[in-house]
Prior knowledge:
The structure is a homotetramer. The first copy, chain A, contains nine helices and no strands. The first copy, chain A, is an all-alpha fold. Chain A folds into two domains: 1-47, Homeodomain-like (Arc Repressor Mutant, subunit A, Orthogonal Bundle), CATH 1.10.10; 50-191, Tetracycline Repressor, domain 2, CATH 1.10.357.10. In chain A, helix 1 crosses helix 2 and helix 1 (6-22) crosses helix 6. The longest helix of chain A is centred in the C-terminal third of the chain and has 22 residues, at 147-168. Chain A is elongated, with a radius of gyration of 19 Å. The N and C termini of chain A lie far apart (53 Å). Chains A and B meet through helix 6, helix 7, helix 8 and helix 9 of A and helix 1, helix 5, helix 7 and helix 8 of B. Chain B binds a DNA duplex through helix 2 and helix 3.
Amino acid sequence: MVDINNKEEKIIEAAIQVFKEKGIEKTKVSDIVKLAGIAQGTFYLYFPSKLSVMPAIAEVMVKKIMIEVNNEVDENASISVQLTQIVNAIFRFTKEYREVLALIYAGLSTDDNLKKWETIYDAFYSWMSGFLSNAKLKGEIRNSVQPERASKLMIAFIEAVAEQIYLYDAVSNEEEKMQKLELIMFLEHALGIQK
Amino acid sequence: MVDINNKEEKIIEAAIQVFKEKGIEKTKVSDIVKLAGIAQGTFYLYFPSKLSVMPAIAEVMVKKIMIEVNNEVDENASISVQLTQIVNAIFRFTKEYREVLALIYAGLSTDDNLKKWETIYDAFYSWMSGFLSNAKLKGEIRNSVQPERASKLMIAFIEAVAEQIYLYDAVSNEEEKMQKLELIMFLEHALGIQK
Amino acid sequence: MVDINNKEEKIIEAAIQVFKEKGIEKTKVSDIVKLAGIAQGTFYLYFPSKLSVMPAIAEVMVKKIMIEVNNEVDENASISVQLTQIVNAIFRFTKEYREVLALIYAGLSTDDNLKKWETIYDAFYSWMSGFLSNAKLKGEIRNSVQPERASKLMIAFIEAVAEQIYLYDAVSNEEEKMQKLELIMFLEHALGIQK
Amino acid sequence: MVDINNKEEKIIEAAIQVFKEKGIEKTKVSDIVKLAGIAQGTFYLYFPSKLSVMPAIAEVMVKKIMIEVNNEVDENASISVQLTQIVNAIFRFTKEYREVLALIYAGLSTDDNLKKWETIYDAFYSWMSGFLSNAKLKGEIRNSVQPERASKLMIAFIEAVAEQIYLYDAVSNEEEKMQKLELIMFLEHALGIQK
DNA sequence: CATGAATGAGCCTTCATTCAT
DNA sequence: CATGAATGAAGGCTCATTCAT
């Protein structure tokens, strides 16, 4: 009874794995099922098409990043330190899963029915919104910050920079570090954090 | 001099058009050549493969966005107004070409040899960097801003938010406006603009 | 005694139904079992393969047509009237079950081992043969008619015309009626019926 | 310039050949193209799908049968002899191409858009109609025969009996001959031929 | 007897690319 | 330079059948 949806999870994990290695175009369903240890036809019992795994992958990705962030952020640290921790967590995650992330963007825009993206991110937005609300209550950030909207901005911002660095640029470690610092400074000013 | 590379341009424009309408996966070379009004084989006289149009498209896209920005930004306006103008231009452009942009990301990451993205954006980064340097010289933004790096951050940021709104969210006009205002406020604080 | 072979009958009836609606190619075993309200595997407890339902269907079809004919034909009517009744019955039946009939032909010729067609029609041939013998004894049809053979001719003939009208032609009601009259006249002359 | 549509004809001929040998289900497009000596993809330049060859085959079949009939019938012979010749031609043809004929029925009813059957047969109907009109003018058949309609009846009748013998029954040569004679007698009476 | 999840061989079709004209 | 008919490798998907429960 333990492995309800066992196969579905296996497929998703295998898909993430293969996509990371081969890219979306070059990944065959046969690759996925081979790694998942199931038959070709079984795939289609759980997903109607190759691309339809994408939303499921996205969901898993969001869960992963939230775990990452939760683990990294020290609740007792200062807002400034916490901000750095958030950036670190997102950067680490983006670096680890850069290919998959690119795939999700491609896959989601490729497949038709998918404006699910927003829904998928909801949990992360909520978390970030709570983080900002809290900081605002404590007077650690400027009062004009609107948590709901700012949370979306922040996530979009940090991820975009991380992707710029890890997906599109080929940047030295040194430069990577400098960019990250510039980003954090940007965010501190944007949020009106007083150090 | 007029129709030097006439066919090549036709192909690029046709490709942009078809990609906008059908997405990268579903676009066939035959669609492109049909719209370009040339023969199937002719395509391969100008581009070695389907994906190799991507960098060319990207280049055109960057040209387009810079024209857009240059047209929008009033050199005599205040920095704050100019910032809004930049955001407006990028938003308008992203809305118009959202599919193509997604395709470029996907296409560039799909194609193997291409980390050209950076190179392609160089002109835009330079422009933005100049913009920031200038503002810094005039003391309109905080002195700690590092123009080279900040320009990348800003472009990534504004584009990411625009994409979030136009690609992934299905957002009301009202909410779109509010998000844009929040973004501008964010940027003003980030850059330390004094109003 | 009531639901002996209950499931088998359910399968056959469901198969007829689905075949009528979807055609032989597009009918999946899963469609049949769904309509029959049984599990996929159960199908194979009663039939060794998909095509092997065909003879069973054919048998049911023949039973149906004989019921139709028996109900229609008035034993006390004149031979001429009876002939019309036979034609009417076969026409009605063909119209109702045209798709299934086409399927039976296709199915029987598709499946390898089956020249069972003849056997299946035997009962109908016998009935018609008896009908002709009887008429011959009573001197209502020409004496040279050979009942055994003529019965096959008649059935083939009437069915063929009905199929021509209902399967292949898209014919007006008026024309349908005229064709039927021409057919009956044909048969009357062929059998040498004196009116 | 001679081989315009060369490939299309090759495909049709190959399809007829392979269908005759393997049946419709078991025929792969790859079998057809192999025999036609062309590439797999080329098939789809001429036909949109596997089943769409069917109408083309049907057309060829009708042409073939008309050639057969025209060759067999002696214009100067008596109507009775000519009738026998028509039956012989159709029987011979049906025997030769029984599998293909069965396939056409199956194929036409399988594919959707096809009530083309009637159109395809038009030429044959016309020929037979002319044959009957002529005989009627010469007073060789009963005056009440309506050539247009009777031509359809006759073709349906003769073909149906031939198919019954060659497709569905497994009949001895002797019985085959007897059935044919019974059929001719049937037709003679039906048409009111005076010998 | 009944189930239905799992299987996997197999085929149709697509489409980027080539090359003879 | 231009053409577009021809190519054929490649892979997504189906579905009849099986078998452990």
